[in-house]
Each structure stands twice: as structure tokens, then as C-alpha cells.
Amino acid sequence: MTTANPAPKKSSTKPPFLKRLLAHQESGLVLVIILISLGLTLFGTLNPVETKNAIERPAGSQVLLLDAQGVTHANGTIARTKIATYRVKSPDSHTDYPANQIKNYDSTTDTLYKITKLNPFLNKSNLVLVTKDASFFAIIAVGMTGVIILAGIDLSVGSIYGLCAIVGAMILTNLPPDTGWIVAVPIALLVCMTVGTLCGFANGAMSEGLGVHPFVITLGMMAILRGLTVVIPQELFGTQSIGGFPTSFTTGFFKAEFFGVYPVPVIIMILCGIVGWFVLAKTVFGRRIFAIGGNETAAKYAGIPVKKTKILVYTITGALCGLSACAYLGYYGAAETNAGNAYELQVIAATVIGGASLMGGRGTVIGAVLGAIIIQLINNTLIIFEVDTSYNQIVMGAAIIIAVVIDQTKQRIQARRA
Amino acid sequence: MSDTKPNLIATGISKRFGNTQALKDVTVSFFPGEVHALMGENGAGKSTLGKVLAGLHAQNTGTVTLNSRKLIPGSLDDAFHAGIRIVHQELAQCPNLSVAENLCLHDIPTKGLTVDFAEMERRAAALVHQLDPDIDVTKPLGLLSPGRRQICQIAASLDKNPDGSMIAKIIVLDEPTSSLSISEASILMDIARDLASKGLTIIYVSHRMSEIFTCCDRVTILRDGKFVATNIVSEIDEPTLVEQMIGRRIEALQNKSNGSNQSIETQALKAQIGTDHHTPVSHSGNPRLVIKKLYSPGKLDNCSLNLYPGEVLGIGGLVGAGRSELFDAIFNIDTRAKGSVKIDGDEILGKGIRAAIDAGVGLGYVPEDRRIQGLFFNLGIDENIIAPIMNRMAGPLGIRNRAAELETVRKRIGRFQIKTASLSQTTPGELSGGNQQKLLIARWMTQDTKVLLLDEPTRGIDVGTKAEIYKLIRQAADDGLAILLVSSEMPELLALSDRILVMGDGQIKGELTENQMTQTNILTLATKEKAHALV
């Protein structure tokens, strides 16, 4: 009998910490992120970006060029390499700038420049920019993970996102400009997320109620909702773009500055990731999603409310589209009718790169968020290497295929070992 | 037979799967014109040997020769052309295609560029109608009952030369009757005998003891991948075979003369489970489950029954009699069912599956097909067991109570002796069939479960685990659980049940109690009135 072979006891011989860490689904993704980041950092160190900033100086001041001995030279009488100090001299005081920081004095415009070398990848604002760009669709990918684990699909997320943004913008633009964030933010969230929730519910209810595969329903919804997104502002405002929101909503909240960067969308993404992980791993609802995705018939026979659970997952995905759209409105301060175009591809790609199986039953929220970051890192790579952005799609497509092939090979090896 | 020479010889066959030694130095000869059974417990290697012979698996060492020609190891093609056919244990067919397409899949007849459907159907009909003339070969295979699907697959290996002789020389039947009803099985056995009488070698891989004695000439026993013995069936008795299979002697099987007219097999089983002196549960109290005039279009017709606490009510019948359909209706899976299903006086019909399961009602259902209807292969053993009641154990907002879950799971695994390496890391795919089945029964062993529906609870699992499951079922009933048991295995049904209802054509055809409970009576009732197509 096969059971006669005693299985190795896992509890007694715990593999070392590092090995356990590596065995984790997400560790491969983190590794990829680290590798790309290391590469970009290295490349950035070799090819720093120089920025010139004019140094402000008091009116009527004069720039003096001093050599190492402190002797003042007239402009043009000293070789550039011999300048040790730039002295900004006002009638009553002076400030010295060592020459190693100040690389340039333009005598024709009488401007003193401060030049800084910046690693194009490894700097605060670029890093936040990358994660910020990822966050808008990573938030949606949290919901999409649930959908994919159910062995479902939602192609309409980009359109839901667009519609939520447009409807939210129509409300926001009519608020008085001095509305406080305490009013503007809840209103915008309520509007965007209500629209998203309704759209998501429609997806779930239609595919479950009519018994039509969600691919078809959400494909149809993708077109319908995108159409509405274009038609509504055209009919009501005669425009493709709606802006002019209370500043408390934009710079006051979603684009609030902390330490010189704008991290709010990233914070929302992280919160969504944590909540999503918790729901999938620690709640009955989450485990039911896995059960249904693993074996829908068995789920039915085990008394799991299959339809209800599925509809709820689509609804939540819609609501997250609304949340993401709201963050987008606040960050950019305007809504375009093409907002979220082709987002469904990015979202599904993030989820799949993150280890979710389109066959259902497998996937992680953390993986999806990391997948979204990887996608943006690839984008960022192309920007840093100054590759034409049209190449993005080619690289992205290849990345998806490679990620899934690697993942499935890993699965197969694990299955063979077991 | 003994004076002819063997045509198929397997010499020194060994086969490993990873860490498992499935076969170890097995040597067997097969003669033309014999039905040769391969027997053993699950994992004994009998199916593996069949698959090595048919070229489905490549052996690691050893040779297979057919009429002195060495076959290429692991080459299905070579074996096929040499005339070896196999009928798989698992149904491997395309349910979306018609029966005809399934049967001609390897060689679809064409007319010009298009498929010649008429020819295809003619060929398929010629094959299938040898076994069952009522099968419509133009129907999608998926719409047939499991029994008929199996028959179609067996029919696929019965193709003939233009002169009417069989092309196949050897047919390996791997658990051919595991999803068949008794009458279908007996037809199949007749066919096996008939084919053997025409000079074919039938290799018959089976669990079922009675079939060995009905239709086989010789039987080779394997145990733990090793050859134990090849016996001439007419010269051996059942206890000796069982002893060879499990390597220990089951204690005295023969029932003393208590006037019972049950078969020795059933009595042996009863002795083993401890139900040989079991007296049927009294019907003095209130019935736990009352079903009145249950009807479902095209499936069930006017079914009524009472089930009492502590009772095992067996439901016998042929495949397609409506037994699983009855369970689906009770459990609210069949939403078109009408009538009345009451548990302790509460109506549950039409109130949804959840309502049937929830505390206070306490209905549980172990469905027929554990792989398709039962298990979550992506989840751990713990979540597989806890699935129906996870919500009841959870805290506010549905946040899981892991500690309580694990304690419950541990208790049930202990009670059912499920052999698993880990609670949450092991998935059901890593368990043996018997342990998978025990897991599914354990799923419903909650304190709240009052009525349990068991549909073929021991299908395709080995003798040892079967006996364990029988004891667990009987124990649960003795503790007060009311059990409805559907089984196509006669000894199982007869040994476990307090009473037996026999179904046919979606109706309950009759009830058998005490001494009426015999295989003959069940078959008689099952085939009453409207004669079954297969009889």
C-alpha cells in the first residue's frame, strides 16, 4: 500500500529559514524585483543624470572667482580647473561655495549653477513614481486575484475604472473650490466606489444569473462602459476631459506631499494588499474563493454558497476599480475619457505574473501587487535606457509569457517531487 | 488450456514511480482462451502490471513478449499493433463528442475532405451494440450514464477484421465493472467469457471477489508489487485468496447455521464489521427523515421513505435507477424537485443547500465521485474537512478560528485514522483513494449532523480500508446518526443496512427487511415491471 511508506515528518526537521523563505510563492517575485533594481542602480551609477539649478543670490551681489590661495581673479583670467571657490559677494556679506559642488558659472547671464548628479533609478522620487504608477492598477489587481482564483476573468476593469473616474470628476468639478477634504474625499470615494460596485455586481450577477461565462459578460461590459465613459462627458460637458477639483482633494489629500514625494496612492495600494491578503488567507469568504476555484462542483456539494461568493468577488473588484479611480482623480486632478484604457491587460498580467493560475484555485494578493511593481519596473527600465516607449508592449508581453512558463515549470517540478 | 502454450509472457517486470516500487520482479504467463484475473489490494501493482503489458507504462526492468516477440517497453503503439488493448480504470474519453466519434477517434472515416458520419456511426454501432443495443451512438458521450460510458469504452477494443475475427489478441480490462451496476457487470463478464472462448486472452484487473469466481479461469495475486501466486480458480476458495492478498488470515468467516439465507460473502463481511448479530433499529420513535412524494422531472417519481435515528437504510438498484438523483433532490442540489423532505419535522426542500446543512437541520452528503464532487485538490486536508462548517466556527466578519478548526480536524483525522503527512500542507491528491474517501466522510461527522447521505462510499478503494469505513459507518449509526446508503456493491449493501429500499426508473420499487435482504430479491425488485434495457 502506498500509505505504508511513512511520510517525512515536516515538523521535526524544519528546513532552514532561508530555504523556507525561498520556497514562498512571492520570494521569486521579490528576487526579480531586487535583480532589476540592482541592475538599474548599477547602470544609473555609471550614467548619472546631471541637473543644473540656478543658485539664488541677493540682488546686486557679485560672483567672485577664488583660487586655492584665496586670490580673487577676474572672470576669464583663471582656468576653470583652478577655481577653488565661488564667492557670492553682497555689499555687506558674502557666501562661499566650494567649486566641487558648483560646476558652472555662466558669465553671459551672470548665473551661478549648482549641479547635482542623480542616479536615474535609485532616487526618492523615481522610486515613488514607479510604485505610484503601479499602484493604480495594483489596487485593482487585488480584486482581480480573487476573480482569477475563482477561475473567472474580468475584462471590464479598465472601463469600470474609466467610468468611475468620469462620474467622480463630474461630481468633484461641481463642488465649491474651497470644500474641505473632510467633505470632498468621502463624497468622491462614495461616488466612485458606488459606480464601481454597481458595475462589478452587474458583472457577477449577469454571469451567474444568466449562466454565461464571465469572459463574455465582461467583454461586453468592457465595451459598454467605455462607451458610457466617452458619451457621458461629451453629452453633458462637450469635452473629453473633466478637471477643476477642490485643491483639498488633490494636493490636500491624494497628492499630498510628504518628504518631497507624493506617496498616497502607494499607501492605498499597500493597505489594499494587506487587507486583500488577510481576507483571502484568514477569512471564511477567502477560503471559499479558493475552494470554488479548486473544484466548483465539490464546493456546491460541501454547501458553499457558490453563486453568492462569486458575485461578491466581482462586486469587490468593481469597488476597487472605483477606489483606484478616486486616487487617480486626486493625483492627476482631472479625468480623461481614456483613463484606464487597456488596464485589464496590465491588471491580469500583474495577477498572473504574481503566480495566480487562470485555471483557478491558486493565486496571492501580495504576488499580484509585486507583479504590478515588476511591470512598472520594466517600464522604468525602458525609460532609463531611453528606449522608445512603443517597445513597452513587446517587453511586457514577453515578460508575461516568461513569468507563466517559469511558474508552471516550478509547479510541475514540485508535483513530480510530491 | 493447459496443453496450449502461453502467448503473452511477462518476465521479471519491475517498475518504480519516484520512491514507490510499484512492481518488483513479477513474472506471469497468460494463455490464449483464458480469463486471467489480476488481484490485489490498492497499490498492490495490479493496475500497473496491466498498464505495463499494454505499453502505457515503461517497465524499468524485465520484458514482455507476445507470441515470442519482444514488445517495446512503454510503447502503446507497438502493443496496439501487436493486438493488445486496454480499457482504463479511469474514464478517459471526450464527453463533448458523440459516442461514435469517441469510438472512432483513432481512425475517423472520411469522405473526401469531410468526415463520413454515416460510416462512423455504422462502425460505432457495430461495436457498441454487441454490448448494449440501446445506446444511441449519435448522442454526446457525456449524456450517457457512467455505466454506459464504461460500456462504450470496452466496446472500443472489440473492433474486427474484415473477415469477422477480432483484431485484438489480448484485452486488458482495468477495473471494468467499478462503475457498473450488477446487471451491466454480469453482461460484461459474459462478454469476457465469450471473447475468451474465441481464443482471446482477457486480463481482468479487479477488486471484486465474486467476479473472479464467476468469470475467471486463473487468478494471479499481487501484494506490495510482488508476485504471490497464480491459482486455478476452480481449485481455490475465497479465504485463501484473501489471505494471499492481504497476507493475513481474516478470522473465521463462515456464519453458523442461523437460518440466514444470505451469501457467504455477505456473512463474512458482517462478521468482519461486527454486524452479524445486529438487530434492525426499532421504528417505535419518531422518524428523523421523512420524505413524501418526492418528484423531479425526468429523474424521480413519487419517492417516499422514513429514516429513523441509528438506522442505515440501504438503497439498491441498477445504474440509472435514480439513486444519486434522489440524494441530489434531498440535498437541494436538484432545484426542480417537488414534494416534501422533513428532518425532525422541519421542511428543507427548496430552501437551499446551506439551509439543509446548517445546525438544527444537520444534513450531510458524501457524493458518488470523490474527485469531481468531493475534494478540493488545491487546499489542505484541514480545509477539505472543515469546508462545510468553517463559517460556523469563524468569529466576527468571518475571520477564521484556526485553533478551533485545527482541533476539530485533528479529532476527526484521529477518529477516521486518515494517514496524512501534515494537516495543512498535504493536499488530497497526495492521499490514497481510501484516505480520500475517509476524509470526505469525516467532513460530515459534526456534532450537528443528524442525517448522512452516502453515495457509493467505498468505490475503488482497497479491501482493508473498506472494512474500516464499514465499521465507521456502523459506529456512527449506532451513535444515533441516520444514514441513507447507496451502494452497487451487494455485500456492502447487505452487510451494512438495517433495511433496503430498491429503486428503479426513479421510483422506489420495494422494501426489503431482515431475511428478505438478499442479492436475488434486490435484483428481482430492481428489474420489476419496466424491464431494464441491459437485462
Could you characterize the architecture of this molecule?
The complex is a heterodimer of chains A (418) and B (535). With 418 residues, chain A is α+β, with helices and mostly antiparallel strands. Chain A folds into 2 domains: 54-117, no CATH class; 124-417, ABC transporter involved in vitamin B12 uptake, BtuC (Orthogonal Bundle), CATH 1.10.3470. Chain A has 14 helices and 9 strands. Chain A has helices at residues 17-23, 27-46, 124-149, 157-172, 181-209, 214-236, 250-254, 264-282, 284-294, 296-301, 306-332, 343-353, 365-384, 392-417, and strands spanning 49-54, 62-66, 72-73, 85-89, 94-98, 104-106, 111-118, 241-243, 334-336. In chain A, the strands form 3 sheets. In chain A, strands 3-2-4-5 form a 4-stranded antiparallel β-sheet, with no helix packed on it. In chain A, a hairpin with a 4-residue loop joins strand 4 and strand 5 (94-98). In chain A, helix 3 runs antiparallel to helix 11, helix 5 (181-209) crosses helix 6 and helix 9 packs across helix 11 (306-332). The radius of gyration of chain A is 27 Å and the shape is globular. The model of chain A is unreliable at 1-12 (pLDDT under 50). Chain B is an alpha/beta fold. Chain B has 4 domains: 1-83 and 169-249, 3-Layer(aba) Sandwich (Rossmann fold), CATH 3.40.50.300; 92-165; 293-362 and 448-529, P-loop containing nucleotide triphosphate hydrolases (Rossmann fold), CATH 3.40.50; 374-445, no CATH class. Helices cover 32% and strands 23% of the residues of chain B. Chain B is built from 19 helices and 22 strands. Chain B has a 6-stranded mixed β-sheet, sandwiched between helices. In chain B, helix 9 crosses helix 18 (490-496) and helix 15 (402-416) crosses helix 16. The longest helix of chain B has 16 residues, at 182-197. Chain B is globular, with a radius of gyration of 24 Å. The A-B interface holds A 1-5, 7-11, 282-285, 287-288, 290-291, 293-295, 297-305, 361-362, 416-418 and B 18-20, 41-44, 224, 331, 333, 353-354, 356-357, 365, 367, 372-379, 383, 387-388, 390-391, 394, 397-400, 419-422, 425-426, 430-432, 434-435, 443, 462, 464.
